[in-house]
Amino acid sequence: MRFVFKTSYDADISLFKHRAQAVWYGLLLLLVLATPLYFVAIGDAYLLGEITGILILAIAGMGLMLLTGHTGLPSLGHATFMAFGCYLNINLLGAGVPWLIAFPLSGLIAGGLGTMIALPVLRLHGVYLALATLAMSMLTSDFVVIAEPWTGGIAGAAVPDINIFGMEINRYSTPYKFYYLVLFVAILIVWFYRNLLRTPTGRSFTAVRDSEISARAMGINLTRTKAMSFFLSATAAGLAGALFGHSAGYVTNETFDLVMSITLLLMIVIGGLGFIHGAFFGAIVVGIIPVAIANGRTFLSTTFDVNINVPGLESALFAFILICFILFEPMGLYGRWLKIRTYFELFPFYRKDMFKRQKSYLKTDRVQ
Amino acid sequence: MSLLEIDNVTLRFGGLVAVDNVSLRVNEGEVFALVGPNGAGKSTIFNLISRFYDPAEGRIRFDGKDLLKHTADQVPSFGIARTFQNIELFEQATVLQNLLVGRHRHRKTGMLSNIVFSPKAYREELRHREAVEEVIEFLNLQPYRDKMIGGLPYGVRKVVELGRALASEPKLLLLDEPASGLSVEETQDMAFWIEDIQTQMGISVMMVEHDMGLVSAVSGRVMALSDGKELATGTAAEVQSHPAVIEAYLGTGEISKTGTSRA
């Protein structure tokens, strides 16, 4: 078991709890930086594209995690903010704005639009807020059709390539550059997120999540805090949407549909609500399942000559996994990892109820 | 001059008069206790001061400023901190994080400098940690410093809530039943802390409490309430021997002919 002796206030503020942890995250960084080398060696970048897709999902997941996991506001409409980000990016690029400006700007405008939508619905709590955002999500594809001049409507719109000071980045022709670009954005957002959580703004978010009444009694303005969380959350989703557009190459009114919103929510629940890690774990699960199913199908048909063509197999599998998590591991994959780690750290003193929660997760659900 | 002035405040919930024309003064450096049977309106007065409720009539002034012109989340900025009858801590956070939220009114950095963790935000964090560390030291919370609230025993949570209120460096501390559910030893600790808060930190305390032992040990003045009305104000001994207070707690001794009795 490790005892961390804190000898300065910095020990509580620093990004890593102790040196070993910093070393592990350093190794992880090296690993993700070196990953493309493997694909260069085998000369096939298909799986790298999938990994890039996982990173993009994780960025969107972090956005939703901030809102749902850390501020306690469920949203079933985050694909809408991704759509905002994506189409804004396309239009800004189309208007000749350089990518380095168009990309962050499309995120920020998506955040602003998100806040404008959020302000009236923020008076709602729990399941009512979820329903309001669900309605927003359902309207998105219609809105994309109506706004045809900007979105291409049903026919769809092609997403221009990224151009950074003359360096062309395209998902297919330069997959390695695209991977590093997305990785950079993801790491930057993780850093912002971590900073937020160790400063007053992030603490006010978790305060609102855990007890609105005492957050107010501590001087936290509920509407402002929730709007701020919505803004940051929608900004991250918008950035993810813009990257998603570059990754897909072509977007239509069906790209950012309700299923995507629900998948995002599933993702963070499976990964572990309230942890940044949860967004990544969830994105990995969501990213791997379709690949695993496709590979499994090929394996079955080539080896055993068994062909499984069940429509909706993926959705059913997602639903099954989600139900299992809610029943057996409400803290998600990251929570399970924490429990395993604690078990070994404290061996043989681990108690079964160490992670037991006293109250329901979303306190906003309670009638006040 | 009085720190807190409540003048002729009335609050109605529909037909029920929860607080009926109550006036009181809390002076600087004093411990003022509200006692009374359940439903007397003690906690309601706290919620009025916290601006969770709007009074129908009357005024509430703090430090010469009209509190009724401000919203609930602005009240702490005047230097009023409170605890709750049913502990309202942030469950999914550690003791340290809970106390740091208490420092919210002292923050000087905004969202942007927080996100990039500017040097200013860093220095501010250090200051907050220092202030919180003093509270931890004062309340002997070191063993629980990094523990999640969800796993702490009731008595410790009570102390953490007091700590969170203290971390905001208030002028007036509102304690809603600080000793309820505490053991005899824990209640004694609480009494010592309240005394220290008053004498060493110079913070005025207003508390709602049923434990008359604690009330007589620490309070200067006591006000007894029943059915939202003031019964008596004075020292603990005076209030306890006041006929109206005895009647409110024990009844008149006459059997009511209509068969209804006062709660």
Overview of the molecule:
In chain A, α12 packs parallel to α15. In chain A, β2 (162-164) and β3 form a beta hairpin. Chain A has a single domain (35-365), classed as ABC transporter involved in vitamin B12 uptake, BtuC (Orthogonal Bundle). Chain A is 70% helix and 3% strand. Chain A has a two-stranded antiparallel sheet with strand order 1-4. A two-stranded antiparallel ribbon of chain A has the order 2-3. Chain A is an all-alpha fold and 368 residues long. Chain B is an alpha/beta fold. Chain B has 2 domains: 1-79 and 173-204 and 213-263, Rossmann fold; 88-169, no CATH class. Chain B has helices spanning 42-49, 95-102, 111-115, 119-138, 154-167, 184-199, 212-218, 236-241, 243-250, and strands at residues 2-13, 16-27, 31-35, 57-62, 65-66, 80-82, 172-176, 204-208, 221-226, 229-234. Chain B has a 6-stranded mixed beta sheet, with helices on both faces. In chain B, β4 and β5 (65-66) form a beta hairpin. In chain B, α2 (95-102) packs parallel to α5 and α4 (119-138) packs across α5. Chain B starts with a strand and ends in a 13-residue tail after the last helix. The model of chain B has no long low-confidence stretch (mean pLDDT 91). The A-B interface holds A 9-10, 12-13, 192, 195-196, 198-204, 206-207, 209-211, 213-222, 228, 232, 274, 354, 356-359, 363 and B 50, 52, 71-77, 81-82, 84, 88-93, 96-97, 100-105, 107, 109-111, 114-117, 121-122, 124-126, 128-130, 133, 150-151, 164, 168. Chain B: Pfam families: ABC_tran, BCA_ABC_TP_C. Chain B: Residues 4-252 form the ABC transporter domain. Chain B: One of its GO terms (molecular function) is ATP binding. Chain B: InterPro entries: AAA+_ATPase, ABC_AA/LPS_Transport, ABC_transporter-like_ATP-bd, BCA_ABC_TP_C, P-loop_NTPase. Chain B: This is ABC transporter.
